[in-house]
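Reviewers of the previous submission asked for a worked example of the structure-prediction workflow described in the proposal, so we include one complete record here. The input consisted solely of the amino acid sequence. No template or homolog information was supplied to the procedure at any stage.
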Amino acid sequence: MVKIWLFLMIMSTPGQPSVKYNAVIYPTEDYCMMARKGYMEAYAAKTEEYKLTMKTEAHCIPFESFPIKGMKAPIGA
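From that input alone, the workflow returned the following structure tokens.
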């Protein structure tokens, strides 16, 4: 088993009966947190009008996984 990080983005829009989500996996917490920071900074840079039409949250969630082909933590991570 290996530890990986799920970067989960949750989005809500007015009048919709459900939320939308997108997720990406990262091999380290640092990579996941950098992705989260970039995502939230991009959202913060949007206009107030845009923010009235979409709310979002992002989380980095650790979990154990079977090894994933092609996903390796960088040396020293």
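Residues 2-65 form one domain. We consider this example representative of the routine output the project will generate in years two and three.
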